[in-house]
């Protein structure tokens, strides 16, 4: 422990000097700290313990402008932070400003032509690890101008899976923000995701899983969902799902199949998506595949998600139902010759006669997606009005097993429950006069003084 503290003191001094000649010393000291942390768990705990300045020193090393970004001291610092990115330690890095520093380094490193691949892999790995712990990472990336860096790297290195995987993990984190999802969609990220997930192949399944999760997050935006429908991607998703259903006979890739269903679920949140799903024969496809999955209990998540999609997309009809869809026929007593009721009765059987107004405010919704980050904070403190908070209403009422009239017969056995007894006079010390009871028979003997 003393060795680690000594090395941290040396590194802090080097950071303050920040001269060109100190780069070699920073490389040596950082590598030594990395070795100590990797070899002994107690050193790692000491670095992240309360009151320790170890993380601040390491992060300040990354901020020194005179050091080379690709220097071994930097790389060792990255590996050190990766080793700390787990559970509570990742939250500590966020609170110390690690997200802002890494985004600034990513922006600086992207200016090199071509960017250093190892450096980009390390930076994106770090951002993917600490991103879920930072609720504001989407906003920070957009403000810093680092939002499209990961997207451009994926576009330029589609065959380099070592680099694409951490970039997709970062894009998945960015896409949870609605403003980022719209911005990335305008830059072609939806089309890019479909290049990665199709056609069917069992190679690089981990990359495909991350791409499907990213696509499902992106399609939650109605703007991106409409873009996917316009390009015919609903049919593509159904084809991909059928291919995985046929080839995954041992059910080893259930998560990938569920990821495809999540994408279909997101795109069918809009009316155009539901119509495209029906037109692509999606009801029959999901029904048949669900029937084949019922025998395997581990595939219940696929059946449940498929059921949710089918229930959402099934056409809705008003009562009375004069069509073959209903087992009963409710005939109105008087049907006017013209009007909305007559129009409903004249519709063919396969027409959805319930007006779907969910997408009538698409333009307003698109504008509202470009929202401020304050709205995201309000969502964190969302109060559900359906939850009862009155304790008196939540307390169960105790009902008597019998009417009160039937219970009066027991009053003679429990007089203390009904009669009003006066308290005894315990303060006065004078004895109360003896009053004989008139109902008592026999002589009354009054004791004289001195007798007990």
UniProtKB/TrEMBL annotation:
Keyword terms: Carboxypeptidase, Hydrolase, Protease
Acidic residues bias (residue ranges): 350-377
Transmembrane segments: none
Biased composition (Basic and acidic residues): 378-401
A molecular-function term among this protein's GO annotations: carboxypeptidase activity
Keyword Endoplasmic reticulum: no
Gene name as annotated: Agtpbp1_0
InterPro entries for the chain: ARM-like, ARM-type_fold
Name the record gives this protein: CBPC1 carboxypeptidase
SUPFAM superfamilies: ARM repeat
């Amino acid at each position: 422990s003393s060795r680690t503290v000594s090395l941290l003191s040396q590194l802090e001094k080097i950071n303050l000097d920040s001269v060109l000649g100190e780069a070699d010393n920073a490389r040596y000291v950082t590598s030594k700290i990395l070795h100590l942390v990797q070899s002994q768990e107690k050193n790692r705990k000491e670095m992240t313990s309360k009151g320790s300045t170890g993380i601040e020193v390491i992060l300040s090393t990354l901020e020194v402008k005179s050091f080379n970004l690709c220097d071994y001291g930097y790389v060792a610092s990255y590996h050190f932070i990766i080793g700390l990115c787990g559970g509570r330690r990742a939250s500590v890095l966020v609170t110390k400003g690690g997200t802002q520093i890494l985004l600034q380094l990513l922006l600086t490193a992207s200016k090199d032509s071509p960017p250093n691949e190892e450096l980009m892999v390390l930076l994106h790995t770090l951002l993917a690890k600490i991103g879920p712990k930072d609720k504001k990472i989407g906003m920070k990336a957009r403000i810093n101008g680092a939002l499209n860096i990961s997207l451009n790297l994926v576009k330029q290195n589609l065959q380099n899976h070592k680099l694409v995987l951490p970039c997709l993990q970062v894009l998945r984190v960015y896409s949870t923000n609605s403003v980022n999802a719209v911005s990335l969609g305008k830059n072609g990220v939806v089309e890019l995701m479909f290049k990665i997930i199709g056609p069917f192949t069992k190679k690089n399944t981990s990359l495909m899983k991350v791409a499907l999760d990213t696509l499902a997050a992106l399609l939650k935006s109605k703007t991106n969902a409409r873009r996917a429908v316009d390009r015919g991607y609903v049919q593509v998703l159904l084809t991909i799902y059928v291919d995985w259903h046929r080839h995954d006979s041992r059910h080893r890739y259930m998560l990938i199949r569920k990821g495809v269903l999540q994408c279909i679920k997101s795109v069918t949140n809009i009316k155009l998506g539901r119509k495209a799903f029906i037109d692509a024969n999606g009801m029959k496809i999901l029904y048949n595949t669900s029937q084949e999955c019922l025998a395997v209990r581990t595939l219940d998540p696929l059946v449940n998600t498929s059921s949710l999609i089918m229930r959402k997309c099934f056409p809705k009809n008003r009562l009375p139902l004069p069509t073959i869809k209903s087992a009963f026929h409710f005939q109105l007593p008087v049907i006017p010759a013209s009007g909305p009721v007559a129009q409903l009765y004249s519709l063919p059987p396969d027409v959805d006669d319930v007006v779907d107004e969910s997408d009538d405010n698409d333009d307003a919704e698109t504008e509202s997606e470009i929202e401020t980050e304050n709205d995201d904070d309000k969502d964190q403190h969302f109060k559900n009005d359906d939850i009862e908070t009155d304790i008196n209403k939540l307390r169960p009422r105790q009902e008597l097993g019998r009417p009160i009239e039937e219970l009066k017969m027991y009053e003679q056995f429990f007089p203390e429950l009904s009669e009003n007894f006066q308290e005894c006079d315990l303060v006065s010390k004078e004895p109360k006069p003896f009053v004989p009871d008139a109902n008592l028979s026999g002589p009354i003997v009054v004791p004289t003084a001195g007798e007990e």
